[in-house]
Amino acid sequence: MDLVFNTLLDHATRLREYLKAAAEGISLGEGIERLRRLYNVAKTVEEREVLDWHLANLEFSNAGCLSELSLAHWDQDDQYEMGGDHCFLAGGNARLVHALCDGVPVLYEKTVKRIEYGEDGVSIMVEGDQVFKADMALCTVPLGVLKSGSVLFEPELPVMKLKAIDRLGFGLLNKVAMVFPHVFWDEEIDTFGCLNKDRSKRGEFFLFYSYHTVSGGAVLIALVAGEAAMEFEKVDPAVTIHRVLDILKGIYGPKGVTVPDPIQSSCTRWGGDPLCLGSYSHIRVGSSGADYDILAESVDDRLFFAGEATNRAYPATMHGALLSGLREASKIRRASESRVSDYKKYALQKSLRHINGVLDDIFMEPDLEFGRFVFVFSYITTEEQQAPGLVRITLQKHLLLPSKNHNVKGDQKDKEPVAKKIDQEVFHLYAIISREQATELMAGEDDKSRIAFLCKDLGVKLMGYDSTCDIGSSLISSILSTRKARKRLQLQKNFKIPL
């Protein structure tokens, strides 16, 4: 039946390729059942039970009933599948979690009720009215919680993300963990299965995992998938344990093996857990792998999302969740660095705006002026000829306009210029210059010759307003400081008492 099952899956792939867009509205379960009837396979009771076991295993892999899985996209992540065997971590997965949390403060019993985000950062409200504030936040709540709306977002999440949350499936897988006084099963095997006669219960305790090699005790885990996983949560745990023991006795009793009562047991209830509301995600009819990408998108570089349901390549896996966390850590770091860079730019722009205003103010009290030239210097005493300073040259924009009479014929009219020059608003050019150079410049005959002397002979570069504020910011600050120092010296002279 292994071959029959795999052949049905191959034909299901061909069916969706044939149906194209029409496959979007068909479930994998419907497709497989149609093909089973078409090829008339699994006709006997035994064959049907074995096929149902394979189908239950498929529901276990996807944490969802086959009637919900999308025929078109249910296996979209197969192309990313990692090679190698499955393995158990000695001591359990908690060892990995503890290693990752080393040095990181973890607060428990802080149930998040509301997340507010915006330009000022993120505020997270938990039960008891406690509020946590941060620049950014990473949301890793299960998809089932996002679907329930138990965590409110303000403002509401983008419409595309809300639709993706609604479209994706979030199914159920439950487990029964039992600790026995000793290992009574074959110690050389990691797993063994069980067939169910009732199709609706095909996923009930269909597979057992042995953890005795990694847990330090005789631990056996029974899996419950598909429809059976939902019914499982309605049954009293004591009844459930009794049912599991009956199955184990049915398997090992005929072999002469006595099945002892467990010394400890636990039943999961992931569907009823308000902090989970399910186990892991799958692609439901109407959804696609693109919805995983949408869930992974950050919002305004303030709110980030991680978890298995945000990893298109490895959904429904522990390593998928881990990789998504690393992905978001990288994104948060980039966003943080960008925000720091933006703040530095803002601070620089703010500083430049301040300097812009100061530049206009310092020329209100010039140290020297002649013609179109105004000077301010950074000096304490007038003897400092090499003291640096700034010069502002006032110029006028001119516009050439056609003469009103340039089309009129006649001897006198033809001699008139075809255009006339109109003075427009003034503008300023600036340069960094020393007091000594300013003295040399003052000896020029007129402003035109002075500008030529400034640029050609002295080699001074003229600048616009913004460039002067940028390049000359430190000089502007120095001019302000020395000007204050000169005023203090002058005050001291004025108030000096003669002997």
Task: Produce a short descriptive summary.
With 499 residues, the protein is an alpha+beta fold. It has 16 helices and 17 strands.
What is the molecular shape?
elongated
Q: Could you name the ranges where pLDDT drops below 50 across 5 or more consecutive residues?
A: 405-418
Biggest sheet architecture? 5 strands, antiparallel
**Taking Cα atoms only, what radius of gyration do you get, to the nearest Å?**
40 Å
The portion of residues assigned to helices is 40-55%
Residue share in β-strands: 15-25%
Which structural class do the helices and strands define?
A: alpha+beta
Total number of β-strand segments? 17
CA-CA gap between termini? 120 Å
The total count of helices amounts to: 16
Domain Amine oxidase: 24-332
Protein name: Amine oxidase domain-containing protein
GO biological process, one term: thermospermine catabolic process
Pfam families: Amino_oxidase
Protein traits:
single chain, alpha+beta, Polyamine Oxidase, Chain A, domain 2, 5-stranded antiparallel beta sheet, 17 strands, flavin adenine dinucleotide binding, FAD/NAD-bd_sf, spermine oxidase activity
